[in-house]
From TrEMBL:
This is ABC transporter ATP-binding protein. It holds the Pfam family ABC_membrane. Residues 26-305 form the ABC transmembrane type-1 domain. PROSITE patterns: ABC_TM1F, ABC_TRANSPORTER_1, ABC_TRANSPORTER_2. Its main location: membrane. Residues 327-564 form the ABC transporter domain. The chain crosses the membrane at residues 60-78, 137-156, 162-178, 248-268, 280-301. InterPro entries: ABC1_TM_dom, ABC1_TM_sf, ABC_transporter-like_ATP-bd, ABC_transporter-like_CS, P-loop_NTPase, Type_1_exporter. It is found in: Cell membrane. GO terms for molecular function: ATP binding. PANTHER family: ATP-BINDING CASSETTE SUB-FAMILY B MEMBER 10, MITOCHONDRIAL, ATP-DEPENDENT PERMEASE MDL1, MITOCHONDRIAL. Keywords: ATP-binding, Membrane, Nucleotide-binding, Transmembrane, Transmembrane helix. It is a multi-pass membrane protein.
């Protein structure tokens, strides 16, 4: 599905269309199963008329043999159909999860706008499962309709009034079932939205648990989650009541319909219009009709919930990209000359900045928002509202975002580690084995490996929480350095590292990045001391630039930012 295109209806259709080779045979087998079940009371009625009424043992054996064949066929078809249908649902949900994952990871971004990570996870799991279940439910719905048709034909053979009663009564029942499902659809959507929000809040609180404990804000966090979870529970209960009311109403309608069929059949038998065997068949068919009607009620409820989930999935898939345009492939090798021309973005106000190829430049700002906006512009996660950023003379807006990020890496201050071994974390995106070793040394992460029980093969906890803050920073820095990108932007990579280690990192960082463009967005004196040049951002614009030692002496704003 293309970015920005699908609707909820299209998501549902694509989920079914993608599983046609499974849904079609499952539907066919399900229809055979239901047809055979519908024929069971017909065969029993025929056996009563031709065998019991006449006392013929041979006729009885023939009808019993036919019943045995019917049960063998219907049981085999049911097992096979159910297995294929369940597989179709799982494959459809898996395909939706892949599409959602691809959209969230799309280099142009935009899918995570105004959505918590936990909410996206809920959409990719619960909503994808509900939409995928359509591929499972559809064969059951087809089988139920086949059962109703076969029953109607059988009743027409027994009695035209009975057959017409079923044929004319089914469409209004189906229409009423669809109308009754509307409240369920609306409440299911609200339920999923509330559940996704609660999941997002929970994930957000867990990820910041240490900070919350340090601030003593656990009670406020618990109160926030309690409120959110109670709202989610209330929405879930409303949806459950709606589903119970939906199924109860449909069963009541079905019960009345079946009772009418039984009464009409009994009346015809009393008048002699049908035989005793026909009456048994008619009553058996009337009782059997409860099963397909229940299947239709189940399918209708699943479709209602799937439509609500499909709309939520479509909203993610159709999210507008954070950056648009850019199909050009960088020509040849990347020198790494970066230039910002009159860039306006957020707190940046007309920034002009020249970063020569192979330079090591420090950027100092006391405004965290301005630093963040600069990182967004360099990574092309957001395009400037005015002005542009260039790489080797080509505006970033003209370059393919994925190819651009293979040449420009912006490593944020809060870079997370994966739940894998330390070496696997550093190898992620590494240029080669030799770059991994060099990166470990430059970041002093090799010292971290010597402290761990299994060295570099030690498996880290989620987000690297088994390491100290300084150790995590060193491993994250090693991962960034191992990529050997032509342009590397580092944001406060050593804030949790002691001063002695920070000085060693500063010296090794300069050597490891020699000949490559490096930008350090930081206020660390140790890192700024090894740069070729430092640029000061104040009030969203460049106010000074020079060597670290010069600025410390001559610029009061710089001195307050760096030495405070």
């Amino acid at each position: 599905m293309p970015v920005g295109g699908p609707t909820g209806g299209l998501v549902l259709r694509e989920a079914i269309r993608g599983q046609r080779r499974r849904v079609v045979p499952a539907s066919a087998l399900g229809m055979i199963h239901q047809a055979c079940e519908a024929l069971v009371p017909v065969v029993i009625g025929a056996a009563i008329d031709s065998a019991f009424a006449t006392g013929s043992t041979q006729a009885l054996l023939r009808w019993l043999l036919l019943l045995g064949v019917l049960f063998l066929v219907l049981s085999t078809c049911y097992r096979t159909s159910a297995r294929i249908a369940e597989g179709a649902g799982e494959h459809a949900a898996h395909r939706l999860r892949l599409e959602l994952g691809a959209r969230v990871l799309d280099p142009r971004g935009g899918a995570d706008a105004d959505r918590l990570p936990g909410a996206l996870t809920s959409i990719a799991t619960n909503d994808a499962r509900r939409v995928g279940s359509v591929a499972t439910v559809l064969p059951y719905g087809c089988a139920a309709i086949a059962a109703l048709v076969v029953s109607a034909v059988a009743l027409l053979r027994i009695s035209v009034p009975l057959g017409l009663l079923v044929l004319l009564g089914i469409p209004p029942l189906l229409w009423l079932g669809h109308r009754i499902s509307r409240p369920l659809e609306q409440r299911s959507e609200t339920e999923q939205e509330s559940a996704a929000h609660a999941s997002g809040v929970a994930a957000d609180l867990v990820s910041g648990l240490r900070v919350l404990k340090g601030m003593g804000a656990e009670s406020a966090a618990v109160a926030r989650y309690r409120t959110t979870s109670q709202e989610s529970l209330a929405a879930a209960l409303r949806a459950a009541r709606s589903r119970a009311g939906h199924e109860g109403a449909l069963l009541a309608l079905t019960g009345v319909f079946i009772a009418v069929i039984g009464i009409v059949g009994a009346y015809l038998a009393m008048n002699g219009s049908i035989s005793v065997g026909d009456l048994v068949a008619a009553v058996g068919l009337a009782q059997f009709l409860l099963a397909p009607f229940q299947l239709l009620a189940y399918a209708n409820a699943e479709f209602a919930q799937a439509r609500a989930s499909a709309r939520r999935i479509a909203e993610v898939l159709a999210s507008p990209a954070a950056v648009t345009g850019g199909e050009r492939t960088p020509d040849g090798a990347t020198a790494g000359h970066v230039r910002l021309r009159n860039v306006h973005l957020g707190d940046l106000r007309g920034v002009d900045l020249d970063l020569p190829a192979g330079s090591l430049t420090g950027v100092v700002t006391r405004d965290p928002a301005a630093a963040q906006d600069l990182l967004l512009a360099l990574a092309r996660e957001t395009d400037p509202s005015d002005g542009h950023v260039e790489l080797d003379g080509v505006p970033l807006t003209e370059l393919d975002p994925d190819l651009l990020r293979r040449r420009v890496l912006v490593s944020p201050h809060d870079a997370d580690l994966f739940e894998s071994s330390l070496l696997d974390n550093v190898r992620a995106g590494a240029a080669g084995p030799e770059s991994v070793e060099a990166a470990l040394t430059a970041s002093t992460a090799d010292e971290v490996t010597r402290l761990l029980p299994d060295g570099g093969d030690t498996v880290l906890a989620e987000r690297g929480r088994s390491l100290s803050g300084g150790q995590r920073q060193r491993v994250a820095l090693a991962r960034a350095l191992a990529t050997d990108r032509p342009v590397l932007v580092l944001h406060d990579p050593t804030t949790a590292v002691d001063t002695v280690t920070e000085s060693r990192i500063a010296a090794r960082l300069r050597e490891s990045r020699r000949g490559l463009t490096t930008v350090l967005v930081t206020t660390s004196p140790a890192l700024l001391a090894v740069t070729d040049r430092v640029v000061v951002l104040d009030g969203g614009t460049v106010t000074a630039e020079g060597r670290h030692a010069e600025l410390v002496t001559a610029n009061e704003t710089y001195r307050r930012a760096v030495l405070a």
